[in-house]
Amino acid sequence: MGVDLETPMPIPSTAPRPGRGSKQADLRLHNERLMLTLLRRRGALAKVELARLTGLSTQTASVIMRKLEKDGLLARGAPMRGRVGQPSIPMTLAADGAFSFGLKIGRRSVDLVLMDFVGQVRETRRQNYAWPLPDAVLKFARREIAALSAELAPRLRARITGLGIALPFELWNWADEVGAPQREMDAWRKADLAAALKASLPFPVFQQNDATSACVAEVVFGRGSAFKDFFYVFIGFFIGGGVVLNGAVFSGSGGNAGAIGSMPVPGPVPGRGRKPIQLIDAASIHLLETRLKAAGVDPSPLWLQPENWDGFGRHLDAWIEEIAGPLAHAIAATCSVVDFPAVIIDGGFPPPIRRRIVEATRSALAAFDFQGITAPAIVEGQAGQNARAIGGASLPLLNRYILDPTSFIKETT
Questions:
Q1: What is residue 216's three-state secondary structure?
Q2: Helices and strands, counts by H and E, the chain
Q3: What does the alpha-carbon distance between residue 386 and residue 111 come to, in Å, rounded to a whole number?
Q4: Residues 250, 243: contact at Cβ < 8 Å?
Q5: Which of 71-75, 197-201, 235-239, 306-310 has the lowest mean pLDDT?
Q6: Residue 131: which of 94, 93, 168 has the closest Cα?
Q7: Eight-state DSSP code of residue 356
Q8: Where are the alpha helices (DSSP H) in 227-300?
Q9: Other CB atoms closer than 10 Å to residue 18's CB: what's the count?
Q10: Long-range pairs of 143-152 with CB within 8 A, sequence gap ≥ 24
Q11: Is the sign of the CA dihedral 205, 67, 73, 2 positive or negative?
């Protein structure tokens, strides 16, 4: 579980004493990560405030801050005057302190982002395709990682902490939905993209499910900091989700916690039987693509122009109306099992579309009987179209610089 960063965190009385070798180094690393985690969550903080929140002495906090500043991980803000004594100097994370790559493998495109230490995407590269194939994705990743690395100054290139890969599990199972020959998609059964990239890169490689990666992005850089517990929904070509408990992403024993796409929901044909179907077949973007194709409308802007869906008119309106009910059903069922105070909805579409989906889901949810439980707040996400790639890029940073990285972060071996 994650650390409660809202209250001071004193050093345990059993902390190792100086001179005890690696245990002392572990304690020092713990305190450094604790400060970096607080600054990421809270923003700029002065040493007195950091000392109070961590339970460290002001002197110890100052020593750690000086080291982190020397290492290039912290930057000084403008002095804060107006109080008695010396003006306090707030410290923030230094944007150039560390860099990481995030690779998102989707059903219609592959994206690579270069992200800095504060979560700003510095560069993005994309390649569209009819369906994903391992060799093409690997070639793209190697080429663009080399190109973006070469564009960094040598001193910044040395600060690349790793690559995080966000990809759907069992890509080979979706050949029909993406319109691909099964024999070509079967190449993913034996493909080990992470191992292939690790062998050719000078930094660590991590891998995670794409929806979980999007959830990580929301926790670290989005609305996640406003809620200790929430359920996360990401609507992409297929819908997926994530579970956040006490500020940490919970992946479950099999890594499938939050796999809301598999949840049964009522079928779409009232009066002709309501045989349950999976949410993935009731509230995913591939349904909009199918609707557009059936109407003779080119669906390629869904992937080629993900920031602008203005040309889809009534087909888009019908899709939003179609998915709101199943979404509300799945949310009500989820929140009856775990008392989530909020559900955050994001996806691979423009922010105005996200807003409409959230509003439609709220309206559909208002018709449900919540007697015995509390209806959750339905909230817009912030990470948006790049959520999965940003979440992937977060994995190396979490592993190296954040206190107690959650158990889903796994470096490839």
A1: helix
A2: 14, 14
A3: 8
A4: yes
A5: 306-310
A6: 168
A7: H
A8: 285-294
A9: 6
A10: 144/112, 145/101, 145/112, 145/201, 148/101, 148/112, 148/114, 148/123, 151/123, 152/99
A11: positive
Q: pLDDT class for 18, splitting at 50, 70, 90?
A: very low
Dihedral angle of Cα 322, 325, 326, 332, to the nearest 10 degrees:
160
296 strand-pairing partners: none
Output the pTM of the full model. Answer: 0.84
Nearest to 349, CA basis, from 309, 388, 378, 382: 309
| Lowest-confidence segment of 95-99, 300-304, 319-323, 338-342 by average pLDDT | 300-304
Say if CB 112 and CB 140 are below 8 A apart: yes
- Length in residues, the chain: 413
Residue type, 308: N
Q: Of 222, 266, 227, give the one whose Cα is nearest residue 243.
A: 227
**The token pair that represents 377 in the structure block:** 């707040």
Give CA–CA dist 57/51, Å, rounded.
6
* Structural domains present in the chain: 22-93 (1.10.10.10), 98-215+389-401 (3.30.420.40), 223-382 (3.30.420.40)
Q: What is the pLDDT of residues 356-375, one digit of tens each?
A: 999 999 999 999 999 998 99
**Tens digits of per-residue pLDDT, 78-114?**
776 655 555 578 889 999 999 999 999 998 899 999 9
Contact 346, 305 (CB under 8 A): no
Reported as a single tens digit per residue, the pLDDT across 154-189 is 999 999 999 999 998 888 988 888 888 999 999 999
| Rounded Cα distance, 52 and 10, in Å | 9
Closest CA to 312 of 344, 289, 328: 289
Residue that has been written with the tokens 């100086």 in this structure: 18
Quick one: what percent of the chain has pLDDT higher than 70?
A: 89
**What span, in angstroms and rounded, lies between the C-alpha atoms of 71 and 374?**
47
